Amino acid sequence: MYEKREMNTKNRNESVGQASLKPVGQASLKPVGQASRLSELTWRRHLPHYQLSSGYYFITFSTHDRFILHPPQKDCVFNAIFFLDGKKYELYAAVVLNDHVHMVINPFEPLPKIMHSIKSFAAHEINKMLERKGKVWQNESYDRVIRNEDEFLEKLNYIA
C-alpha cells in the first residue's frame, strides 16, 4: 500500500515515495498539561480545531468525493508537504494514501494557514497535471493534539 522512506534532502530530490518518517530521536516531546495554554479554539465548518501555543499534531485530510490520487499526484502532495517543512512546521512523518493524507508535525504557524498552503499548492499542481478544474480536497481536516511521547510514537507507528 505504501513505502517507508527516511526523510532527508536526498530523498526529496528523488522520485517521491508514499511515506516518510524522521528518526524518532529528533522529537523532544513534553506532555501536554496545564502548562500548555490553549491559544485558540475555532470551528471550521463542522469540526472543532484547537491550536496550542506549542505542540505536536496528528493531521488527516481527505480528497473531495474520494478522488483517487495516483503516484504522480501523490508526488505533488509530497512536494507541497516537503516544501513547507522547516518553514511552516517541522515534519516528523507523512503518508499519502489513495484518498487521504496523514501527517505528524510541530507547527510554527496556525494550522489553518498550513493546511491552506498544502492543499492549495497540491490542488493547483494536480489539476494542472490532469488538465482539469475542480476540487481536490475536502474542506475540513482532522487535527489531534499529541499529548505525550507514547501517543507520538503511536501515531508514527500508525503512519509507518
List the helices and strands and how they pair.
Layout: E1 4-6, H1 9-13, E2 19-21, E3 38-44, E4 47-52, E5 56-63, H2 71-84, E6 89-96, E7 100-107, H3 111-130, E8 137-146, H4 149-159
Parallel strand pairs: 1-2
Antiparallel strand pairs: 2-6, 3-4, 5-7, 5-8, 6-7
Helix pairs in contact: 2-3
Number of helices: 4
- Which spans have pLDDT < 50 for at least 5 consecutive residues? 1-17, 31-38
Trace the largest sheet across and list its strands: 1-2-6-7-5-8
| SSE-based structural type | alpha+beta
Using the alpha-carbon principal axes, give the shape: globular
Number of domains: 1
In N-to-C order, the SSE pattern is EHEEEEHEEHEH
Major beta-sheet overview: 6 strands, mixed
Q: What Rg is obtained from the alpha carbons, in whole angstroms?
A: 15 Å
Helix content: 25-40%
Portion in beta strands: 25-35%
Q: Averaged pLDDT, please?
A: 80
Distance between the termini: 11 Å
What's the number of extended β-strand segments? 8
